[in-house]
Structures are given as C-alpha cells and as structure tokens.
Write a structure and sequence with these properties.
The chain is an alpha/beta fold and 194 residues long. Helices cover 35% and strands 22% of the residues. The protein folds into 2 domains: 107 residues, Formyl transferase, N-terminal domain (Rossmann fold, 3-Layer(aba) Sandwich); 82 residues, Formyl transferase, N-terminal domain (Rossmann fold), CATH 3.40.50.170. The chain has a 7-stranded mixed beta sheet with strand order 3-2-1-4-5-6-7. Bound molecules: 5-O-phosphono-beta-D-ribofuranosylamine.
Amino acid sequence: MKKLTGLNKYKTAVFISGTGSNLKNLIKFSIKKNSPISINLVVSSNKLAKGLKYADNKKIHKVVFNYLKQEKTEKKILNILFKKKIKLICLAGFMKILSKNFIKKFNGKILNIHPSLLPKYKGLNTHERALINGEKFSGCTVHYVSNQLDSGKIILQKKIKIKKNESIFTLKNKILKEEHKLYPKAIKRVLSNL
Ligand code: GRF
C-alpha cells in the first residue's frame, strides 16, 4: 500500500441513521496519524440522528435526506460524493437500503457493519433472535455491500460468547465494543488490498 499522509488519505463518507457510536469511533480512528482514511462527509437518513453531533463536533460536512423519493435522493447524494471526491463509503447503522444503481457506482467501495455472525441473522433484531434461539455465540461482521441485504462478501468477523444470563442490552453493548475494534481493522484490510 502506498504511504499515506493527511493529504492522500482515502476520502470517506459515513452513512448513519441513529446513535452513531460507530461514526464516533471511525472519526477517532481517522484522525490517528497512521490511519488510511479521512472522514469528509456524514450522510444521515434521519435529521434527529444523535450521531450528527459527532460530525458537528469535528466540523465534518453533513447532509440529511429524508429518503422519501429514493431515486432523487440517491442522485443528490452521488453528486455530493463525486464533488467531494469520496472514495470509500462506510455504512454505520444506516437504516436505508441502497439501490442497485447506487451500489454499482461505488462497486467494491461500500462497507457495512452488522451485529451478527453473518450469514446468520441478517436484518433487524439480531441480538433478540440470537438469544431466543439459544445461540452460544454471536458477534459482528464487516462486509462489502451488495444488492442483497447483509449478504456481500465478508471482510472480517469477530465472535463472542453469549453468557447464560445475557440480556439484549448486555449483548448489544458487548458486541458494539467489538464493532468499534473491528471496523477500523476491516477498513485497513480493504485499503491495503487496493
Ligand atoms: C450497530 O450495531 C451496527 O452493527 C448496526 O447498527 C448499529 C449502529 O450503532 N448496523 P451505532 O449507531 O453506530 O451506535
């Protein structure tokens, strides 16, 4: 991989819809000296997303779209991404499904983090479903985004043990902690293969 300085870091956009703990963590990662990315844009599908405050704190350009008209919205987002020369998109709790056309434009450059050991438990309520099914393990996965929900090629996964008295809350927090370690690792891996 070529030597990265602040000037030639991969310009990255993070897409969120909610709390934004992964966004916060990716911002922290991006400002490390040896990080391969800079975060130049935050896209939110929700104007009330708590995570937007992390963009404000670091004066990162942010845009909010209500996504009522997906095609129009994606066109606008793509324009901003191209204008800002964004090279990598990290979905982090983004609750909208990107269209085929959008994915094609950034093929192989869109990553997502999902709170389960994919291919198990795609979609929502992963922790609840893992507990109901009496799973002994769960975890998180970073994968490329493809046309099928939570189904793109897996980049990295972290497995954790589910305790006997685990609740949705404790499991979610335990996995979130791992997500915050896994996402930066996966980004490094992806970019070192380019
Ligand atoms: C994370 O569990 C992520 O894996 C999933 O949505 C959650 C987002 O959390 N896709 P946060 O908004 O980053 O705190």
